[in-house]
Write a structure and sequence with these properties.
With 136 residues, the chain is mostly helical. It has one domain. The protein is built from six helices and four strands. The strands form two sheets. A two-stranded antiparallel sheet has the order 1-4. A two-stranded antiparallel ribbon has the order 2-3. This is Cytochrome P450 6B5-like.
Length: 136
């Protein structure tokens, strides 16, 4: 399989599987955390009543729902690792690590590790994270 064919296949699968997995995990977490489910329900209900139904503006106002989806993606990333191939010789600054052209590079998604989040300002997630914890 050529690289272009492989990438086209990935784009096709990525558009389908990632959405269904995210929705499934989000619903699962809300079932495990009814207090969050209630807040999401209220958020959706208020936005729909204010705008008379499902509109672009009502979706834009569903901030808690948006946070629920964002947090679901953080806890259950659709793509847990990225595989790449080094395209040129590279010396990692501040280390004695050398990566040669053609080397396979695996980039893990580390959003669940405390070390990944300790220095990041968690503006809108500050209250959210105190309640929402992964069940898996």
């Amino acid at each position: 399989m050529t690289e272009a064919t492989a990438q086209a296949f990935v784009f096709f699968i990525a558009g389908f599987e990632t959405s269904s997995s995210t929705v499934t995990y989000c619903i699962f977490e809300m079932a495990c955390h009814p207090e969050i489910q209630e807040k999401v329900y209220i958020d959706i209900d208020q936005a729909l009543k204010k705008h008379g139904g499902l509109t672009y503006d009502s979706l834009a106002e569903m901030e808690y729902l948006s946070q629920a989806v964002d947090e679901t993606l953080r806890l259950y990333p659709s793509v847990p690792i990225l595989n790449r191939e080094c395209t040129r010789e590279y010396d990692v600054p501040g280390t004695n690590l050398h990566i040669s052209k053609g080397d396979a590079i695996v980039i893990p998604v580390l959003w669940k590790l405390r070390i990944s989040w300790r220095d990041i300002p968690l503006t809108s997630y500050r209250a959210w994270l105190s309640v929402w914890k992964p069940t898996a």
